[in-house]
Amino acid sequence: MIGTGISLADPCLAEMAALAGFDIVLIETEHSQLDYQAVAAQIIAAKAGGAFSAVRVPWNEPFLAKRVLEIGPDAVIFPMINTADEAKKAMDACVYPPDGTRGIGPVRAFRYGLTDLKEYVKNSDQALLRIIMVESKTAVKNLPEILKTQFVDAILIGPCDMSFSIGRGGDIKCPENMALIEQTVSACKKSKLPVGIWIGDDTEQELRLWWKKGFDFLLCSNEFVLLSAAQKQLCKTLKAAQR
Question: Which segments within 13-127 are labelled E, that is strand?
């Protein structure tokens, strides 16, 4: 599966990404100004375009996940998970009692009441993908225990933050960082858990290198970077045509 990120509020952007052919639209709330109403519109737009919606919550706090879960995305992503205890806290927020601590009160998630509540609760574990992010040297060290956490469906690597965790900020492809990435992929394969990565590379040659690492899904760039690059190139072309 392939995907891209959405950080701006206009739902047309999520729909455009879906219609362009991306399988996954990752709706970003950790590093953006998106509010819950905008997130809901993006989720609906992604579905309209035929893509899978995944919302990255700002932090591993149950109250931050709760309102996103009630909107009904296909997946929720928790950033900066470094220990098995943190992974369990994230999963508890997604799962109803007795296995978790999620409170009852879905809205769009159970089709605004058109789905029977008991039926929704019974099937909710299968209706949502729960993804945790591995973004540090500490997380990789603790990965064997993290991967044992019940209800974790997939791992997403954050390579930039990982490089900062080893004092090589932004040097994603340095040998030390690549070793941590490869170690994470290997551990996930052993645990039979899907693993992906979110990178900024956008050339076929660079992307082939990442696919060869064995990832199950690849997220690339986001809409504002793509728009800015296209606008910059158009501006350059227009100025060149003036001469």
Answer: 24-28, 52-56, 75-78
Structural contact between residues 102 and 95, judged by C-beta atoms closer than 8 angstroms: yes
List the helix and strand counts (H, then E) for the chain: 11, 8
DSSP letters along 164-203, please? HHTT-TT-TTSHHHHHHHHHHHHHHHHTT--EEEEE---S
Taking the model in full, what pTM does it have? Answer: 0.97
Q: Which amino acid, residue 234?
A: L
What pLDDT, in 10s, does the model give residues 208-243? 999 999 999 999 999 999 999 999 999 999 999 999
- Which residue among the candidates 31, 111, 189, 236 is catalytic per the annotation? 31
Give 112's pLDDT tier (boundaries 50, 70, 90). Answer: very high
72, two tokens: 């009904």
31 belongs to the catalytic site: yes
List the domains of the chain with CATH numbers: 2-242 (3.20.20.60)
